[in-house]
Specification:
With about 350 residues, the chain is an alpha/beta fold. The protein has eleven helices and eleven strands. Helices cover about 30% and strands about 20% of the residues. The structure holds adenosine-5'-triphosphate (ATP), iron/sulfur cluster (SF4) and magnesium ion (MG). The site of magnesium ion has 3 residues, from helix 1. The site of iron/sulfur cluster has 12 residues, from loops.
Length: about 350
């Protein structure tokens, strides 16, 4: 992507949630360092995947970008405009351009409203009257997301989980956004229908040219959806790269561990050595010094405990492939030996 004019430009983005304690007067006694200094850009029409284990700060990042949360520090620019601390009035003109799709299609739709009313909601709030009227636009949107346009008078409970998520997508599209933050949009759905919803989002991204920040736990889903992927660990981006570079040449030990758990896409691919991460993710209230991954990293040294590794282009990496590790992984030049065939199976 070109760095000259990103749609979204995030630098040093930080969110610390204060922890109150003490009696009788509550004071701030600490902070959850949910997001701690993120730098990334999203180009127009591009899809950036954001992956990492539970609690690493993905949703907080999504809520900061959409300004549902107030950042503690850093800067968010949208189309060149600083929106880091923009108030409601200042955000009004761009509210329609940045939309969010949530994980839970049950909780995010008002059960007492018809689908038509839900999808038209953003048009009402923003006082937008499309040519032909709101109802016509709702029907058009239902059609785009693969639902029957005649069903606009039905209620959410009359739809399946996958269909409800399509309603959420239609609502997000109502105002012709330029950026959609999709927070685990398929993880609450049956595996059998996840692919359908991902395909729909892919169609939306390609045909309508909408940029996405696609949040997911697992690298398998973003592989098909995102041209670029950022891997998060305990509030920080540990690696960011174009999809091919990240999957073919992971340099951060954590990325490698995550990838080793993803089933191979093709039969011909060399089997990856499975890396099992031991221990739990440390608390973001008191993260490890230096590299935050060091308590689970098999290569950690003294330096890792004292110096936080910067997110930089490691030796041999392509431009735009950044890794935060003092000792980046090196790709094996000798192919790994193929697993010996089970002699009994062959017999
Ligand atoms: N409003 C809040 N107040 C205090 N702590 C919070 C708040 N929201 C999130 N956190 C904490 O911030 C950290 C990051 O949370 P976040 O929801 O962003 O993670 P996540 O990567 O989206 O996780 P998951 O994969 O489980 O959705 C967690 O430790 C969480 O408990
Ligand atoms: S900096 Fe050290 S602890 Fe962190 S990932 Fe690299 S080798 Fe592991
Ligand atoms: Mg989340």
């Amino acid at each position: 992507m070109s760095n000259t004019n990103p749609l979204l430009d995030v630098s040093g983005l930080t969110k610390h949630f204060p922890i109150k304690g003490g009696f009788p007067i509550k004071r701030t006694v600490g902070a959850v360092q949910a997001v701690d200094g993120l730098d990334f850009q999203v180009a127009e029409g591009e899809s950036l995947g954001l992956v990492g284990e539970s609690g690493c700060g993905k949703s907080t990042t999504g809520r900061l970008i959409t300004r549902l949360l107030e950042p503690t520090g850093g800067k968010i620019s949208y189309r060149g405009q600083d929106i880091t601390h923009a108030n409601r009035r200042q955000l009004a003109p761009i509210r329609s351009e940045i939309q969010m799709i949530f994980q839970d299609p049950y909780a995010s739709l008002n059960p007492r409203q018809t689908v038509g009313k839900i999808i038209a909601g953003p048009m009402e709030i923003n006082d937008i009257n499309p040519p032909g009227g709101r109802e016509a636009r709702v029907r058009e949107l239902l059609e785009i997301v693969g639902l029957n346009p005649e069903h606009f008078n039905r209620f959410p409970h009359e739809f399946s989980g996958g269909q409800r998520q399509r309603i959420g997508v239609a609502r997000a599209l109502a105002l012709q956004p330029k950026l959609i933050v999709a927070d685990e949009p398929v993880s609450a759905l049956d595996v059998s229908i996840q692919a359908q919803v991902v395909n729909l989002l892919q169609k939306v991204q390609r045909e309508l040219g909408i940029a996405f920040v696609f949040i997911a736990h697992d690298l398998a889903i973003v592989r098909h959806f995102s041209q670029r992927v950022a891997v998060m660990y305990l509030g920080k981006i540990v690696e960011i790269a174009d999809r091919e570079d990240l999957y073919d040449n992971p340099r951060h030990p954590y990325t490698r561990a995550l990838l080793s758990a993803v089933p191979e896409a093709t039969v011909e691919a060399e089997p990856r050595e499975r890396i099992r991460l031991v221990g739990d993710v440390p608390s973001p209230i008191n993260p490890p010094s230096g590299c935050r991954f060091r308590t689970r990293c098999w290569k950690a040294t003294e330096k890792c405990a004292t110096e936080a590794p910067p997110l930089v282009q490691a030796d041999g990496n392509k431009p735009g492939h950044l890794t935060a590790c003092h000792y980046p992984e090196v790709q094996e030049t000798v192919p790994a030996p193929r697993l010996a065939k089970d002699p009994e199976a062959a017999a």
